[in-house]
Design brief:
The chain has about 325 residues and is of the alpha/beta class. It has 3 domains: about 45 residues; about 210 residues, P-loop containing nucleotide triphosphate hydrolases (Rossmann fold, 3-Layer(aba) Sandwich); about 50 residues, no CATH class. It is built from 13 helices and 7 strands. The radius of gyration is 22 Å and the shape is globular.
């Protein structure tokens, strides 16, 4: 217990090795990791969580890299959760954080963690939520989540981030229309990256037209559309300002605290479902009724839905 308490204190003090160790425990679904989150929870709730999503090739990693530099120039401590595709062999992240953002690797005020999706849908990793909590407890002012970039399904980021930026680029054409039902509806900021390429103004115009058609009251936040050229560091100062303007808007409207509560409720609900399922299967395993149910399922005498209902009727409390 003393060893665990020492690790928790090191995390609260911002020790990156201790934080990395806890994140590894959480990725491995070690019960000790979840247990430590109980003690860290009172130290969370202050970090500003930014989300950056968009299609492959839009330059998200370069944007995040530049954004880190700008936020550090403003004396903010920055943590990054960089979600990468999973290796089909090891299950680990295919792209390493030190490769993509190596110029920040030796900065004690920056903590970058690459995480694999490991089959989790929505462009995030299964342990993204827990990792953000760890960074929050470590005292980072800003946590940036960069999604994997797999297409229109990456709307889960809106559950995690206070401010979500959707990145597009010239040459997308009709893809902007195709994105409308998904990514475009979760955006608090629109970024047209690689804006020195032909067609950037056309993309801005399309996005503005879609915003004009959307139903918003005068008190709602209207997502700004910003042109950037990340490889030249152009538009990055303005982008950081927009993120911070939206943060202030959320605080003034009470939406910042409301977002945190919704985030916490979803985490609470997820844990209840996981714990309940574990307990039900622990109670059921090796019992005659459960084994009989498995045999019926194997022989297709019962469908999975009915089997689940029977299992709950037999083994769930109440």
């Amino acid at each position: 217990m003393l060893k665990t308490q020492n690790l928790i204190q090191k995390i609260i003090n911002g020790n990156q090795l201790a934080g990395a160790r806890l994140i590894r425990l959480l990725e491995e679904e070690d019960s000790a990791g979840i247990g430590m989150l109980k003690y860290l929870y009172p130290h969370t709730g202050q970090a500003f969580v930014m989300g950056v999503t968009g299609p492959p090739g839009s330059g998200k990693s370069t944007l995040v890299n530049c954004l880190i530099g700008e936020l550090r120039s403003r004396k903010m401590r920055v943590a990054v959760v960089a979600i990468d595709p999973s290796s089909p062999i090891s299950g680990g992240a295919l792209l390493g954080d030190r490769i993509r953002m190596r110029r920040h690797a030796d900065d004690d005020g920056v903590f970058i963690r690459s995480m694999a999706t490991r089959g989790h849908l929505g462009g995030l990793s299964k342990t993204t939520r827990e990792t953000v909590l760890v960074f929050d407890a470590m005292g980072y002012d800003v946590v940036i989540i960069e999604t994997v970039g797999v297409g229109q399904d990456e709307v889960e980021i809106a559950q995690f981030a206070h401010t979500t930026a959707v990145v597009s680029l010239p040459g997308m054409g009709d893809d902007i229309q195709a994105m409308k039902a998904g990514l475009l509806e979760i955006a608090d900021v629109f970024i047209v990256n690689k804006a020195d390429n032909p067609g950037a103004d056309d993309v801005v115009e399309q996005l503005q037209s879609m915003l004009d058609l959307s139903k918003r009251s005068e008190t709602d936040w209207r997502p700004p559309v910003l042109k950037t050229v990340a490889v030249k560091n152009e538009g990055i100062v303005e982008l950081a300002d927009i993120f911070w303007d939206h943060r202030q808007f959320l605080i003034d409207s009470g939406a910042f605290a409301e977002h945190n509560f919704k985030w916490e409720y979803q985490f609470f609900r997820q844990l209840v479902m996981e714990m309940a399922a574990d307990r039900i299967f622990d109670r059921a395993k090796d019992t005659p009724s459960f084994l009989e149910l498995l045999d019926d399922l194997k022989d297709r005498k019962v469908d999975p839905i009915s089997a689940a209902e029977k299992l709950l009727d037999i083994f769930s409390p109440g």
